[in-house]
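Changelog note: in this version the structure field was regenerated for every chain. One regenerated record is shown below for reference.
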Amino acid sequence: MSSLSCRSIASIIRDGAILEKAILHAVRNCVRELDSRAWSRVPWNNIGTPPQGAAAMPTIQRRMPRILLAILILLVAAQYVQAQQQPEVDMYRPTVMPDRIVLTWAGDPATTQAVTWRTDTTVKDASAQIAVADPDPNFKGQDVAATTVTLDNKLWSANYHSVNFTGLKPDTTYAYRVGDGTHWSEWFQFRTASDKPNPFSFIYFGDVQNGIRSLWSRVIREAFRAAPDAKFMVFGGDLVTDGSSDTLWGEFFGGGSWIYGMVPTLPTPGNHEYRDNDKGSSNVTRHWRAQFTLPENGPSGLEEYAYYTDIQGVRMISIASNEKTDEQTAWLNQVLSNNPNKWTIAFFHHPIFSPAKGRDQAKLRAAWMPIFEKYKVDLVLNGHDHTYGRTGLEGGTVYLTSVSGQKMYELNKQPWMKRAAENTQLFQVISIDGDKLSVQTRTATGSLYDAFELTKQPGKANVLVDRIPADVPERVRSSN
């Protein structure tokens, strides 16, 4: 049995359950392959003379039992893998206790805070409690009713609950918890943004995607150690490798654990958050909007994918680079032409400058790079290429592509790269303080790998100063 379908049964076992269509497809391919070898054309003159013009008659040989054996092996292997994975799958099963608690923003970060969480479907009347944080443990929280949606997947159904706290005081620490009146999470704390352009930092993660529980979890934890006061975290798409897999989302939320409940998340969708639909096109999987409560100020049909939010003098813009380029180009012009903030940062999945070998996003570069140059966008953060590449000032903008997960591609070293890396898990700490924006790229072990500063000059282009550590060689193959 040499066919790929016969040898890769594990690749079609997902979420600890057999995907019916996938297993049947694999069996069909295996049978087709073996069947093509099991049947042969035998001349009619071996068994008699056929009528004039008749085709050779097929006859089966002794290899037919191998077809049945192939089917049996596939089914037994599938059941074995399923049994082996079941304990790991069960750890992500929803219960009455809240899990996957994540802070995001749907409104002004200075006066609002959104939170989303998951339970099983027995929890109907979910709510959150919030109070100004107090060292006295006897503080009382105010109840806020949650909005609930039910999401079905191949494993189970789950309820996703969301609350958008409003009327909050800027630059104030709050305590909150989520539950149903009986089953409560622990108390978390967050601090609202200032309504002034005070200094702050945030963390950026390129593609998470693979090895989430085993290898990426160390990256987010190291990032939190490097920037414990980060105002928020940005994800550049491909948070998981299959956006419809509930267990992979379980790994993602397990990797960051309580960090998500204290540091708000701003994600943008990557191609792995999309799945084909029955109309021959792709959509972001239903997990996305169920578990992330985000601004709905993007183009029609891209709510909570393409959006922007303003925080302490910085406009953060998420662009859904997988679809509707023309619509988002028009929207970008509007968002950037009416921008009162000193700094502007865009983040989306596909890179304008591709650092990986054999990749190039020429269409996006032609559509959006002139807009970034026209409106003096300061920094663009990308992913997708599973390598690291950072430009100098390209039309006044710095473009940075990074990867935080396990999956790696081969680097294509190019002249525009001020700094590059391959086979290296990374994260970025980005700090804004008045007229200065600084970026530190650190490895999964916390070591500084790349750094630069941008300085604003009234009426002039930004000044870029590289702060690349002189004693750290580039992590690239010699062939590059």
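Spot check on this record: The chain has three domains: 4-90, 99-191, 200-466. The first helix runs from residue 4 to 7.
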